[in-house]
């Protein structure tokens, strides 16, 4: 599955109350271009930290679903 296809599948499951944390430049750019929202948190260039940010948000906001999308985004098909 290509990155764009994976993002389409993931974002199709997102509702208006979910918080999205995305890392790496390509993933964050694609989400920004196609699915931008005030609830999205973009942390490109913070390899490995998106999960920490997502965990902190999930602990602080237990009534919200937090979705973390992370990866190296370097493989091209």
List the secondary-structure elements in sequence, H or E.
HEHEHE
Oligomer, anyone?
single chain
Strand order of the largest sheet: 2-1-3
**Alpha carbon gyration radius:** 12 Å
Percent strand: 15-25%
Percent range of helical residues: 40-55%
Biggest sheet features: 3 strands, parallel
Integer average pLDDT:
89
CA-based shape: globular
Which class best fits the helix and strand makeup? alpha/beta
Query: What count of structural domains?
Result: 1
Distance between the termini: 9 Å
The total count of helices amounts to 3
Task: Explain the overall architecture.
- With 77 residues, the protein is an alpha/beta fold.
- The chain has one domain.
- 42% of the residues lie in helices and 17% in strands.
- The protein contains three helices and three strands; from the N terminus they run αβαβαβ.
- The chain has helices spanning 3-12, 25-35, 50-60, and strands at 19-23, 40-43, 66-69.
- Strands 2-1-3 form a three-stranded parallel β-sheet, with helices on both faces.
- β1 (19-23), α2 and β2 form a beta-alpha-beta unit.
- α1 crosses α2 (25-35).
- The chain starts with a helix and ends in an 8-residue tail after the last strand.
- The mean pLDDT is 89.
């Amino acid at each position: 599955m290509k990155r764009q296809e994976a993002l389409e599948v993931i974002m199709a499951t997102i509702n208006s109350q979910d918080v999205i944390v995305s890392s790496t430049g390509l993933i964050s750019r694609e989400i920004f271009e196609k699915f931008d929202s005030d609830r999205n948190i973009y942390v490109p260039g913070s390899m490995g930290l998106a999960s920490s940010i997502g965990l902190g948000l999930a602990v602080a906001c237990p009534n919200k679903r937090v979705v973390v999308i992370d990866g190296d985004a370097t493989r091209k098909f």
